[in-house]
UniProtKB/TrEMBL annotation:
UniProt record similarity statement: Belongs to the short-chain dehydrogenases/reductases (SDR) family.
Organism: Streptomyces doudnae
NCBIfam families hit by this protein: PRK06197.1
Taxonomic superkingdom: Bacteria
Pfam families: adh_short (PF00106)
Bilayer-crossing regions: none
InterPro entries found in the cross-reference section: NAD(P)-bd_dom_sf (IPR036291), SDR_fam (IPR002347)
Region (Disordered), start-end ranges: 255-276
Keyword Disulfide bond: no
SUPFAM superfamilies per the UniProt record, alphabetical: NAD(P)-binding Rossmann-fold domains
Gene3D superfamilies tied to this protein: NAD(P)-binding Rossmann-like Domain
Name under which the protein is recorded: SDR family NAD(P)-dependent oxidoreductase
């Protein structure tokens, strides 16, 4: 077994600017705390600004707050404009915020809540901020997915918003599969620029507030098993932190816990589902996402980067 990667392996982040969504609690908080602890200037992009300010005070260092509600494209645009006006550059964009297993609901724009928040909100935010990253050598977009991308997961182009029927687990799986497909297609488009990379990560089984909407049939057995099968948020954040800061990490890589079944453990490169590497579906999802959000990215695939992003 190789050296176990921990927060101690994070290089000096002084002079770097990081934006972390959903950073007032759980994995996002631990990600922001670790980056700030290494000297980064960190923006907590959060729905509740008061909770964000309290989190910033606990973290200390050069940490500020930006209000961001990923369930509203108006809020995403307002937040992106505010960040563009105050930041000259972004080195790290950590697309961490998310919802899981929610009852059937829609965002303010009428999107199914999990797909709209986990994928479309982050897709729009990334597209609106990317030109602050492209001039910055070593900049990275890291999007947090989940092992749930394998569970009953597909991109249901015939019913993306689950209007005909709704299954909360399958809808979550679609949103997390979309996170990966977005990452791989974004990396294909970034490859020609050579400055910015797109990577993904997942936390394994981590004990956070995200699981509060777990279906009742699963809640009791999971409560009994939680101490055995989960790891604390600080450990769950390590794959994201490694994807964001490890000098050896490559665009298109996916990081997760290195233990059995990727449930917990120290981070290492992992492989996502075969479906996630389907380049034709990635491109179709990208086109649909641009249409739904009205956000067009300042990067297009070059002829030399047209091949699929493959497991690395």
């Amino acid at each position: 077994m190789g050296v176990q990667w921990t927060n101690d392996n994070i290089p000096d982040q002084r002079g770097r600017v990081a934006v972390v969504t959903g950073a007032n609690t759980g994995l996002g908080y631990e990600t922001a705390r670790a980056l700030a602890g290494r000297g980064a200037s960190v923006v907590l992009a959060v729905r509740d600004a008061d909770k964000g300010r309290r989190a910033a005070a606990r973290i200390g260092g050069d940490v500020s707050v930006q209000e961001l509600d990923l369930t509203s494209l108006d809020s995403v645009r307002t937040a992106a404009a505010a960040l563009r006006s105050r930041l000259g550059r972004i080195d790290l964009l950590i697309n961490n915020a998310g919802v899981m297993y929610t009852p059937k609901q829609t965002t303010r724009d009428g999107f199914e809540l999990q797909f709209g928040t986990n994928h479309l909100g982050h897709f729009a935010l990334t597209g609106l901020l990317l030109d602050l990253m492209l001039p910055v050598p070593g900049s990275r977009v890291v999007t947090v997915s989940s092992t749930g991308h394998r569970i009953r997961a597909a991109i249901h182009f015939d019913d993306l918003q689950w209007e005909r029927s709704y299954g909360r687990v399958a809808a979550y799986g679609q949103s997390k599969l979309a996170n990966l497909m977005f990452t791989y297609e974004l990396q294909r488009r970034l490859a020609a620029h050579g400055t910015t990379a797109a990577l993904a990560a997942h936390p394994g089984m981590s004990s956070t507030e995200l699981a509060r909407n777990t279906p009742a049939a699963l809640r009791y057995p999971l409560t009994l098993l939680t101490p055995l099968i989960t790891q604390p948020p600080a450990m769950g954040a390590l794959p994201t932190l490694r994807a964001a800061t490890d000098p050896a990490a490559l665009g298109g890589q996916y990081y997760g816990p290195g233990g059995r079944n990727e449930i917990k453990g120290h981070p290492r490169p992992v492989v996502s589902s075969p479906e996630s590497y389907d380049a034709s579906v990635q491109r179709r999802l990208w086109a649909v996402s641009e249409d739904l959000t009205g956000v067009t990215f300042p990067v297009v695939p070059s002829a030399s980067s047209a091949a699929s992003v493959l497991p690395v």
